[in-house]
Specification:
The chain is an alpha+beta fold. 36% of the residues lie in helices and 25% in strands. 16% of the residues are buried.
Length: 155
């Protein structure tokens, strides 16, 4: 691999605006890029070595760890082939944000999962806008004579 390509890979992962996080098979954070710092508010030094729990809301942790353990055990995930998972997450200040992410399991030569990388994007603004639009549409549909606003199905 040429030095320029290696530098490109490193720069892409380190400086990407999306969060790129790698956690080992036990869920300990081993890589945390600048996008993760921006989205979640934790510096790289604060995040490395910590459990992924620092960004997972408490009410979702059991579900997360069940899925994480199953992926580590089986090597299979439905979020590795481009399917995006949208979930709430936590920032350092305790505020909740909306994120979308995909994961990429890292497997050794024997097929054992070493850890997982995730590419995450903050989508709070878009989520809030969509929620407001849905609320507005529901209010409009509730108005008298709003049947014309309902979607029609052509036969």
């Amino acid at each position: 691999m040429s030095p320029d390509i290696d530098r490109f890979y490193r720069t892409l992962v380190r400086d990407a605006p999306d969060a790129i996080i790698y956690a080992d098979a036990n869920g300990a954070i081993a890589f945390w890029n600048k996008g993760a710092e921006r989205i979640f508010g934790f510096s790289e030094a604060e995040a490395i070595g910590q459990s992924l729990d620092i960004i997972i809301p408490e009410n979702l942790r059991q579900r997360h760890w069940d899925g994480f353990a199953e992926t580590v055990q089986t090597g299979k995930t439905r979020y590795g082939d481009g399917d995006v998972l949208a979930v709430p997450a936590l920032r350092k200040d305790g505020s909740r944000i909306s994120i979308e992410f995909t994961i990429l399991p890292f497997i050794d030569r024997t097929g054992r999962i070493l850890g997982m990388a995730a590419i995450l994007r903050g989508v709070t603004k878009r989520f809030e806008e969509l929620k407001a639009l849905r609320k507005e549409v529901a209010a409009l549909r509730a108005l008298p004579g709003a049947a014309a606003l309902s979607p029609t199905v052509s036969k």
